[in-house]
Amino acid sequence: MTKRERVVAALGGQPIDRPPVAFWRHAPDVDHTAKGLAEAMLSFHRRFDLDLVKVMSSGVYCVEDWGCRVADTGAPSGAKQCVEHAVRAAADWARVRELDPGGGALGRELEAVRLIVRGRHDDAPVLHTVFTPLTIAKKLAGDRLRDDLRAAPAAVEGALETITRTMTRYANAALDAGADGLFVATQTATREALAAEALARFELPYTRRLVEAVAGRATLTLLHIHGREIAFDELAALPVHAINWHDRLTPPTLGAARRRFAGAAVGGLSEWETLRRGPVRAIADEVDDAVRQTGGRGVIVAPGCVLPLDVPEAHLDAVVDAVKRSRP
Questions:
Q1: Strands 69-71 and 81-84
Q2: Chain-centre distance for alpha carbon 239
Q3: Of 229, 243, 267, 308, most Cβ neighbours within 10 A?
Q4: Domain range for residue 225?
């Protein structure tokens, strides 16, 4: 099977030669330019012969144009941070204006997508990373978002409308730029971040609008649910093809997810423990367990989130080798 055929078959739980395999890592030293990011993504993809390309834009590219100042603060994951938030008072939510999806930092990332698509040597699907509207609000405001959701909910909702309009246009622009699909990341859909009522009001409706905006156009909409005690079932009801989460840290297991979600489960690997520390036998055991839980169907073997920068390449080679040896 080609890589695209393998991924599409996995999304539908169809017979397959082996599960697809993917992992992704930030490139904080070069991701501030389209050319630097594209070259890093293509080099990483060629090095490990992965089944899809997840574009690892800076995790805060989406708020640069709204006035956040971002920097590489040396995070072990390589993720850049907002070192100065755009929303510092409740009144600042009203200053969040709709953006041109082709301009500024957003346009820079679209150019990286174009370069990656042109430079790809195989048919592996390319996924551009976008964030859900409430996650973007969290990046804009930092910890004060929680207080404003309680004290000034209407102000936050006004900004969420603007963010959603911008990001639905941007998601479609990414597909127009050649991306096959989207990696849609939420960092605000956990029991710790939101009570059930807040989840239903501030997270789910806006995330639904974002994924529905590309339904029918995207080959693969992969939803990443970040954190512990995630709202898996609520998000699994959205029109997405696959879900990725920290399955080695928080329920459900891959096997349980396959019984609760019609699309593909993406995970099986512990990026902060097994992939960093090994040994190679333990890495192969995690791959085998992921295949065993799912019967090798409807699964993409991957970490629960971004790789730490210090994961040894030999450990990533071990993942690929174990997947390629596996059979459903």
A1: antiparallel
A2: 16
A3: 267
A4: 3-325
